[in-house]
Specification:
Chain lengths: 152, 350
């Protein structure tokens, strides 16, 4: 995988995305929150699969779009995998127990986090996933959500 | 007998009250044994009038706390029974959202306790879907290979008997129903996208575009539908925009065909692996016309009996939870402990 700068990667395969997620996981501490941004099929779920692999969590990581939250245990830290794709308001996120997940002492990975960026804590890491029509993929760690690019 | 005053005349028993609140829907059902669903209410399908008047706002559709009580009252009223005659209480214990599960589960336990310590059964939501094809079947639950396909799940299971399940395969990424909804969104179709793709596809050519049949030859019973999103993403820019109605119908039909082909192929492999002669199909995606059509044809050709869940029991509902509770009670399965907690990661089989 090509690493064009300290905060930018160009995965050439699904395995590259998994490896990146796994290496990111190694540096995460309890309470870490990762906001993942990018359109459908840009690699967000595969990145979370990598996080689970890096944390040593048990079980197949699958998309939580319909189920909203998946929990993975058995690793160095529990992993809470959320997807805001189907939520319509911040209020709904609080209603499904957002506060409890924040306090659960695990790692929280949130797909479509840029829908409600204000609910993520200030210390959250933000990751942008891009894929061009040519097939070139870019994963970038960014300072803040760039909501104007978000697919709504 | 005081019971006869409020119980239905043909009361076979046990009378079961079941609550389901694993994710989006709040649902309540009342069943008389295995064979009669007396009421099955789903919050999104009824206008619940609050004590202060008014209708549940759309925003609160997932607000199980507000919905549950009026829904229980409505179900009792429709079933024509009072809560005192309920013999068995049941609720979904998982998988699902912890906060949502707790509301239905705790309420059912409290009702069981308040009724003088009546039996309570914690039910796995997926077991509800798994057994739903047998609802109303006088032959009851029989060994089979089962395909459960919904927005959140894609499972192949070997059902050997009540409570005896072996997981044969599941999705590695997206569920089949999720693939339908996400591709529908890419195509600009309204939510929920599954039924919309089904509708559009009827006028389309399923061979117009060659979408990948992911893992169809993988030899195992795993699924992967996430690559279909990518295939659609690369296909769309090559087409004239806006899409003509014909092109849209062809895209829908071709995409749907790719999903259906994989589901049918894997289900047939599951039948071969298990040696069963009965295949069951349940979950929201089992309402898809093309899936029903191709699965029926494949089963007929291979001498396999096919049972598909009735459409009313395909989406999330509490009747299937009541059915599982009835089956457990009638098979002498021990009731659950009131100390048993909900489990967001509850598994059906390993």
């Amino acid at each position: 995988m090509e690493e064009t700068s300290a905060n930018e990667w160009h995965p050439l395969s699904v395995e590259d995305t998994l490896s990146l997620g796994a290496s990111v996981a190694e540096g995460l501490e309890a309470g870490a929150v990762l906001g993942l941004m990018g359109r459908l099929g840009s690699g967000k779920t595969h990145f979370v699969k990598g996080l689970a692999r890096g944390l040593g969590c048990v079980g197949e990581v699958t998309s939580p779009t319909f189920t909203l939250v998946h929990e993975y245990t058995g690793g160095r830290l529990p992993l809470f995998h959320l997807d805001l794709y189907r939520l319509e308001s911040e209020e709904e996120l609080w209603a499904i127990g957002w506060e409890e997940y924040l306090d659960a002492g695990g790692v929280i990975a949130v797909e479509w986090a840029d829908k409600f960026p204000a609910v993520l804590p200030e210390m959250a890491q933000w990751w942008r996933f891009e894929v061009e029509e040519t097939g070139t993929r870019t994963i970038r760690r960014v300072d803040a959500p760039e909501t104007e690019e978000a697919e709504t | 007998m005081t019971r006869s005053a409020t119980a239905p005349p043909s009361y076979a028993g046990p009378l079961i009250l079941a609550l389901e609140s694993s994710c989006d829907e709040t649902a309540v059902a009342i069943a008389d044994g295995l064979d009669h669903i007396l009421a099955s209410e789903i919050s999104s399908q009824v206008e619940l009038h609050r004590p202060y008047g008014g209708v549940v706002p759309e925003l609160a559709s997932r607000n199980h706390n507000l919905n549950l009580r009026p829904l229980i009252d409505l179900a009792l009223e429709k079933a024509g029974v009072s809560i005192e005659v309920i013999d068995v209480f049941a609720a979904t214990a998982g998988p699902g959202l912890a906060s949502s599960l707790l509301i239905g589960n705790t309420t059912a336990k409290a009702l069981a306790l308040a009724a003088g310590g009546k039996p309570f059964y914690s039910i796995n939501h997926m077991e509800g879907h798994l057994l739903s094809p047998f609802m109303g079947d006088p032959e009851g639950i029989r060994p089979c290979a089962a395909l459960v396909v919904s927005g959140g799940h894609t499972l192949l299971i070997h059902l050997r008997g009540l409570g005896d399940y072996q997981l044969l395969g599941t999705t590695r990424d997206d569920a089949a129903g999720e693939a339908f909804d996400k591709v529908a969104k890419m195509l600009g179709l309204p939510y929920p996208g599954g039924p919309e793709i089904d509708r559009q596809a009827r006028a389309g050519d399923p061979a117009a575009f060659d979408f990948p049949r992911s893992m169809i030859d993988s030899g195992d019973l795993g699924f992967s539908f996430s690559g279909l999103k990518t295939a659609m993403f690369y296909q769309l820019p090559k087409l004239d925009q806006p899409l003509s109605p014909t092109c849209l119908a062809d895209l829908c039909a071709s995409f749907q065909e790719a999903v259906v082909d994989v589901l049918v192929a894997k289900a047939l492999t599951a039948i071969r692996q298990t040696g069963e002669t009965l295949l069951t199909l349940s979950g929201g995606v089992s309402c898809n016309h093309r899936l029903r059509e191709k699965m029926s044809a494949a089963c007929e050709k291979n001498g396999i009996e096919l049972k598909i869940a009735a459409p009313a029991w395909c989406t999330d509902n509490a009747a299937m939870i009541a059915y599982v509770a009835a089956a457990k009670a009638l098979h002498g399965v021990e009731p659950s402990s009131l100390d048993e907690d909900v489990n967001p990661n509850l598994r059906l089989a390993d």
